[in-house]
Amino acid sequence: MTEAGTQVLHPEKIAVEPAWLSELRRSALATFESTGYPTMKNEDWHFTNVAPISNRKFGTPKVGASVSPDALTRIGYGQDWVTLVFVNGRLSSQPEAGSLPSGLTITTLASEIEKDSEVIKRHFAKLATPESGSFTALNTANATDGAVIRLAADSVTEKPIHLVFVSDPGAEGAATYTHNLIFAERHSQATVIESYVSLGADVYLTNAVTEVFVADGARLSHYKLQRESQNAFHVGTLQAHQARDSRYESFSFATGAALSRTNVYTTLAGDAAEAVMNGLYMVDGNQHVDHQTRIEHVAPNCPSHELYKGILDGRSHGVFNGKVYVHPEAQKTDGKQSNNNLLLSAEARIDTKPQLEIYADDVKCTHGATVGRLDETALFYMKSRGISPSQARRLLTYAFAADVLEKIELEPLRHALEAQVLERFSS
Prior knowledge:
With about 425 residues, the chain is of the alpha/beta class.
């Protein structure tokens, strides 16, 4: 970066890239420079002020060291998962050659760029385009690594695929850009988990983009876990495109970062495609957490179901803005959207805006939002049965989160997140 809030491309990066990608990066940077960082005048950013990011000067992260097995054990939720580790935006470790399940291919964005693969040329920044947002434009201009996952047609990958993105001390004061591509071919099935964590770094920016292509009849479960440093910044975008009879299930879990924003978008482009979007965010202190979702119904006969829950303590601020958009051709749409929030402090606040925009006349769509505090009657009842006030508060908070956590089909992950909820509010 030159001035605060201004990103520049690194010349050494362009020198080894194909000409089309260098031009795309220059165009993305020009797009960012013409629009700048989003402001609160932008409808989608009305409740989130990115000045803490735009006013800082972020450098380039140092090449990260390898992560110790003990650290990976603390990060991971399964010992028998297919795991790739990226440290400060660069690949650090991956499964041994030949150890991947049949039908699964995993490479990296860096290696695909190096060989100028047709896959990257055809799909990189095609769903999450530079024009779709300032942070996405910055990611397009700067991303040099990430995972490229291919699920072969008719393949079933039983082992979860875990992408671990670690910020170590070398990321301090720097911005890290990762870009992932996931291809679920016809009738394939798999589970992909993205974990964003910090091991030593304090103040840094993570700007991540994942583009997901779900072909006819494919089934993909996609989990994103954001547990960054409490002083870090995180902006992530998941953009999916679904073909006929596909099912895409997304779950966002966010507890870290001083300021975080997660965008989850999908387009139901094929008849009878199904989208499920769930999430849980838990923040306290002065944390700010923002979730933006968009389910775009283009084809007919497509169901979508969405449930996001938030638990806010201290002086934290939560934002939820969810939109279900139904095109005129999308008859027989069945869309349900709900956002429920629990405020544990008088100073915590939430801005929630579930939205429906419907241009078809034969649909079933509902949406709603709730904001409340712990039930005083339930607290009194539990205290009268000898349960301490802190324990009663903890159990009721867990009960609020439990129904969305129960939607996680991957058992080791569900148990791990349940434990984190209990631990978070144990004091």
